[in-house]
Structure formats: C-alpha cells, structure tokens
Please model this.
Amino acid sequence: MRHRTHIRDHDSEAAVFGRRVLVAMVIVVAAFIALASNMYHLQVSEHNELQTRSNDNRIKLLPLAPNRGLIYDRNGVLLAENTPIYSLDVTPEEIDNLEQTLSQLQQLLDFPDSTIERFYRNLKNQRRFNNVPLLDELNEKQLAVFAARQHKYPGISIEARLIRNYPHKELLTHAVGYVAKINPRDVESLRESGELPNYAASRTIGKLGIEKYYEKDLHGEVGYQSVEVNNRGRAVRTLSIEAPKPGQDIVLELDLELQRKAAELLGEQRGSIILMDATTGGILAMVSTPSYDPNWFVNGISVKQYQSLLNSTQSPLLNRVTQGAYPPASTIKPQIGLLGLEEGTIDEDTRIWDPGWFEIKGVDRRYRDWLAWGHGWVDVERAITESCDTFYYDLALKLGVDKISSFMAEFGFGERTGIDIHEEVSALMPSRGWKRARFGQPWYAGETLSVGIGQSYWTATPMQLAVATAMVANKGEHLIPRLLRGKIQDGVFEEALIAHREKLTLSDSSNWEVITKGMRNVNMSPKGTAHRAFKDAPYSSAGKTGTAQVRSLGQEEEYNAEDIAERYRDNAMYVGYAPAEDPEVVVVVAIENSLGGGGSVAAPVARKILDVWHTRFNNGKKQQEETNADN
Model:
C-alpha cells in the first residue's frame, strides 16, 4: 500500500522561522546592549580606577635607602662613618646549574655551608631574575680572587653599597653605640610608631647609645625609583627617581683625645671616667671599661662572639657610666654636710670628738672610722677634708634617714639623670618607706649611720655623681648631662640647648662656701685625702675621695686588699671639679675592686685626665683670648 504524500505548509514554517529570528534578534540586541553598557562602565565610569590599577601592574615604586648621617666629636673628628663594601650577588635565572656554581664558589672563596643555607632561605622570597646576596661583605682576598675569574661565572656579580663603620672601635662603644640589622622586633616597633614605610630599603637601625637615641635624625627619609615592569615583574625601564633625603650629621660634646686618654688611664681595670663641662652639662669624655668592638654588630655578630660578650665575667656589655650602680661612699659627704648646715643640725663651728669609732646608745657595736686612732676634734670642713666617718655617723643619726633621702633626691639620686642615651638606670636612694615596701622590715639606726657615709642600700651611678658634684660646684644649678653638641642639616650647624632642672636653693647661701672650702682642702691642703695626687697642679681644684665597701666586715675583721678575692675588694671613687674658684669641668672616676682607696687609686687618675683637659682647653682658650686682644 502506497503512503500518502503530505504537502508542506510554507506559511506555518515561515511563521515559526520569523518568530525564531525575532527571538534571536532580541537576544542579540540585549547582548549588545549589555556589552555596550559594560563597555561604558569600564571605559567611562571606572576609567580612573582601572587606569590606576593598570599602572600599578605596569609601574612599580622601588624604595631607595637614604645615607645615614655621620657622627663627629666636638673638633670635627669622625666617630661614625659610612664606608663602601662589596657583596657577592647571584641572579638565579642566568645560571644553568645553580647548585654546581655555588659549590665552585665555595671552594674558590672559602665560605661555610651556613652561607649557602642562608642564600637558599633568602631565595625562596625572591623572583629568579632578582639579585640575591650570597656574601654580604667580601674581604680583600675574596674580592681580588673573584674579580680575576668573574668572566667564568655569568649571573654572579659584585655589588657595592655603604655600611656603618666605627674607626675607633671599642673606644666609644658605650657613648656612640652601634647599628645592627633590623630584626622582627624592630619591624613591629616601627609598625607601631608608623615609621615602617621609611625603612623600606634600610637594612640596619640604631641599637645602642647615640645611634639609637637620635635614630630619627640620623636615618634620613626614604626615596623612590619609579620603574616600568613587564608581565613577569621584571623592570624594563626607569621612569622617574625621587632621591632619598640623607640623615642629619651629629656633633657630640666628646673630645676624642680626652676619651683616648681616659681609656688609657683605666687600662685593663674595670671602671669608668667622666669629664663633664660644668657650665653646659656637655660630656667631654665618657669611658667604661672593658668595652668591645661595635663593628661586630653591624653586619651580624656571630653566636660565638656574642656569647663571649654575654658570658664574660668582666661584663663588657655594661655601660658602667650610666648603668654601674655602686655605693657612693664618702663622695656624697659634701651633700650630707650641706643638709646638716641647712637643717641647723650643725653649723660651721660645730665640733665632735672622734676617737676612731662611734657608738649608738644601747647598741653593742662600734662603727669604725677609716683612721683607727681617730681624727680628734672635727668640724664639718675638716670632716670633708680628711673624710672623717665618725663625724658623719653622728650627723646622719641626728638627721635621720627620711631627711637624708629627701634631700639627696634634690641632687638627682634615685632617678635617671636624663642623659641622651637610653642605657641608664636610676640606681637606689633608700628610705624608711622603701625598705618597708621592699623587705617588709623596719629601718634600723645602724643603717642610717651607713647611709651617712654612702654605704648600706644606697647605690649611685657615676653619671649621678657627676650631676650632684656639678650642683655643688655651681651652687645649686642642676644641669642635665648631654652628649649632643648640635646637628648639621644642609650644611648649617644648629647648637643644642642647655637643659636644666629646678635649681636647689638654700635658706643660707653661705652654706655652699663652707662645703666647697672643705672640698678645696681635699686637694689643696696637706691633710686632704687627695693632696698627694694634686700637689703642684698648675690649676686649682676641689674634690672628694671615696672608698666603697663591696662587702661588710665583721666587728673584729681587718680589711687587707691583698689577702681577699678580687671581687670583694673595695671600689675606689673620686669626684671633683676645676678650677676651684670658677668651675669649668667636673670629673668622676670609679674603679672596681682596686688595690687601694679613692685617695691612692682614683684621685691620681683624676689628676692625670684633668692635666690633659687643662692643656687642651686652657691653652686653646688663652690663644683665643690673645687673638681677640690683637684684633
């Protein structure tokens, strides 16, 4: 049976086709409208933002480290400088066999496996076309050896940069300080202070002394280099450069020759010497021994070197000038005597009999004077001149520890002096309340006697003694010590301001004269404890010796420095100023565990450093005066 053929309905098909075309056209128009809308959004509405993002992908800002400011002494001698060094850098993508190349370099330049390990750690955070340092500092031999063979090592280059250098090494470490590599703790501190962007290209930061205290001034401001990069991040051309602003140069009050002489006088002894300008508070010399080479820290100190410093029994890391807390001993007798005069407890003519010892009623103990047979009849002036302990036992008991503690605080004991380095302690000015809070015990009369001669719990730093001595020399003027003389910015020197604290004013200003007369006699009277050291000096001076006990002696025990262990020997102390009539300089000497006291050990050192000061400063002053007179 034959199937029947159907005739196609062209009209129906045309209608279906028309509907489909219409739908397709609607979709195309809608898509075109959407595309046009999106193009308008991208090209017009978001133009600025997208252009910026495009430039960010195409243009990079590379930070440029500023040159660190230099540090000079008062005479223009460089104390901290920037010197060029050469590093060995590797560009990994230019090397076919990196492992083999590093092995060859190790044999050629003789560096440890740890150097290669550090290189691979650094490589993880770098792109292969960037330079990665292998050796931070090439020595002369390594530099010469590699330079002769550099053509054999494509991808290995010698790069030059500036590094901090301290030409005088350990001589100035505790004053000038040093810089060292920025560590995570530094990064966190910079982030908190908002300074982190300014260190984008810096490798080091001030860690100690002046380098740390004036870090903001010395560091400078970061610069930037604008470069165009390709899709892999490689710089293809430089667009612009904003030069970094170098740090300010700093001039210190220190005199290098005085500093060198002071260090020479201390030699191998543990101790410190301070020379301070009595009119400005400027520190002319500040030596703490033993010391160490600050250059060790600049590029990263080895574990072995650091452990040797940290574990040394000589404590070279301790700045004895501002962190060494010693019993001040008899060096504070002038201030105690001044308190007695001010309170009316004694006057210029008050005398006591000194048989060589002192007793408290009802206490079965004798407190001995350093002179076993005593000084006889003693007034305050003679008690200072001959350093009579018995007079001060009696005076301290009458005054009481509360008055002593309060008055000594006026001289800065028990608080930081404010010198412009961070490494300073407040030491301890004891009081009745302090002992109760610290030990939960009452204060005893015998402890007051010990405080009266600068012993017991009382400790002071040499810098505190310098400030207190300057206050006596200046009749109450309280200078804040400083290392900074001024700053140099754009070739212009700006001198630092002299800073003071509140002046100590006495009810009777003539009391100053009583005390300073006793101090002059210490050096200039035949009975003075420092007379032998200052005999025939070409200048007048005043001072006070002190011998600080490191450990207490038993009632019947005799002290003999040669028969006891070194660490138990007394400390030799001396404070003073010159000239006596118109003070220009204050000197403090503290020598630990010495074979002798303040008069026999510390005073001669003070005399020798003052002789150098007198020659350098007074001769220069006379020449200037003669020049002015001729003009």
User: Anything to note?
Assistant: Residues 256 and 598 are 26 Å apart (CA to CA). DSSP finds 22 helices and 23 strands in the chain.
